[in-house]
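Morning!

This is the sequence you dropped in the shared folder:
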Amino acid sequence: MVRLTMCLCSYALGYRTGRAGLTTITIIMMRSKNISVFGSSTLKIKRAGLFLIMFLLSLNKSYAQDKDFHIYLCFGQSNMEGNAKFEAQDTISISNRFKVLQAVDCLDLNRRKGNWYTAMPPLSRCNTGLTPADYFGKTMVSNLPKNIKVGVINVAVGGCKIELFDKEGYKSYSATAPGWMIGMINQYGGNPYGRLVELAEIAQKQGVIKGILLHQGESNTGDTLWVEKVKAVYDNLLRDLNLKENSIPLLVGEMVHADQGGICAGMNTTIGKLPQTILNSYVISSKGCTAAADKLHFNAAGYRELGKRYATKMLSLLDDSSKNSNLKIVHRK
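The structure's back. Tokens below.
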């Protein structure tokens, strides 16, 4: 009795050219008892090669990034989390081109972690308020071509120092964090930085990361090492997401300004030094952005204005980078 066994010897796949190479299939015939090979034949068949490639791709899941889906990572403390209650005007006319990737499960909102939703506030945790990310996204989609979608990921913890987003040091920071903060940290699986990376990796399967928005510093007021600590977080994010060094702009908002009586306004001097260390970073002025009574947080109007300023800067950066592309910025007010 004779068996027919087909053995794959080699295959070639032109990833860069998109052309499939010839697949070599060797047919070896063996006798059932003494397995001596008495004949072989090599066939080069284009069709077999194409079929094999399609089969391999079906086993190895591939994800097509949509270059028209722009992703922005947002992180920080309470002013990025959203301290002001959102109002009716903040919940209407939200374009379905503006999306949020849910950072935590919010069953009352019918939202599950890791899924995309139209960006209706709250954009951070379940009971948070209006954030700069709300009007950042609204302004972006109103100024970008209609084929462009904008998605935000917002991971923020009120009251935290930048150390909470340190890839290696977050555990020691969390160990000494006040009890009221622990619950917020735990909503991100005990590791807000890890959650941000986890969600960013999900987003990268569908879109392209275009920028990072940071609003943090109140809890690090007076910390002369803050700039270096932010750089460490930024560098780790790019490394962990396989992004080139300094390739993604970092937009950093100021604390409530001195013209509003901001109690942490002195930190703005430190924030202003960031572009000297991170070349692709930009400071977003808070001057004139109205504050809440505590002079620590912005009020709703202040968040709206600050978010628009983040967007104005990002649009200018996209405008500069689009001179050699087909992206046309509308620049609506």
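Headline: The longest helix spans residues 300-321.

More detail when I'm at my desk.
O.
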